[in-house]
Amino acid sequence: MNQYTTKINDYLENSACKILQACLLKSSYIFQRNNMTSNDIDLKVLDSQNKMLCTIDVQYSMNYAKYGDVRIDLMSAGRLIENTGREIWKLNKDIKESNEPYHYFKSLFIINKSGKYFEKQAKNMLGVFYYFYNGSFDKNIDNFKAHKADFVFFLPTRVVLQELENSAHVVIKINDKKKNGINENHHSAFICLNINEISKNYDIPIFQNKDYFSKHFPTLFQKELDIFLGNNYD
């Protein structure tokens, strides 16, 4: 990761920490950076006794108005179990036409490194806090400070896993590295999730302004934390 990317990540992660803490100021939860000396999930949530309850990742996405989705790494590195000679476009077509895309995908690959959602360290990850920008701009720290995110969204880990396991319509794509001029022997893949559909199907708001976020996010956070911790939620 270069110094420019690090500065951007630091800025967004620190901002998310402040936003979440301010929103849940009346609660006993404490939000802190979790990755200052390691490559752990970005933020950690503590209770009043300083016990870690969960972690939260922080991400941003450009051109949200155009695409309306997020891409989540499913496989960072893997290889085909059996080399059938099928081109990447054909593998993607077969996955798309399968009745169980995820299970069919798993039958094709030996996964050497999973995406962040599916690694061991993610077992404590409550979800991802997203900054969505409708347009695009040069990715430097000054531009991120100058541009306010158009929306923020909290995507629970449980929702990603449910979509992957249960949806016959989940979009899984293998990266065509050869087509994109990437000289790597291993394969990688991602899933696409439409945020409007996720918002509607799981009753998760897309936050468009500070007041709406302040009013509704605490309820969403507590609900997801209760589910995560195994508490009863009605």
Describe the protein in words.
With about 230 residues, the protein is an alpha+beta fold. Helix content is about 35%, strand content about 25%. It has helices at about 5-25, 65, 90-95, 100-110, 140-145, 155-165, 195-200, 210-230; strands spanning about 30-35, 45, 50-60, 70-80, 110-115, 125-130, 150-155, 170-175, 185-195.
- Record the strand order, biggest sheet: 1-2-3-6-7
What is the arithmetic mean of pLDDT?
89
Largest sheet: 5 strands, mixed
Q: Count of DSSP E strands? A: 9
The radius of gyration computed from the alpha-carbon positions, rounded to a whole number of angstroms, is: 19 Å
Residues in helix, %: 25-40%
H/E series: HEEEHEHHEEHEHEEHH
Explain briefly what this protein structure is.
The protein has helices at residues 3-23, 64-67, 88-97, 101-108, 141-146, 157-166, 195-202, 210-229, and strands at residues 30-33, 43-46, 52-61, 69-80, 109-114, 125-132, 151-156, 171-174, 187-194. It is α+β, with helices and mostly antiparallel strands.
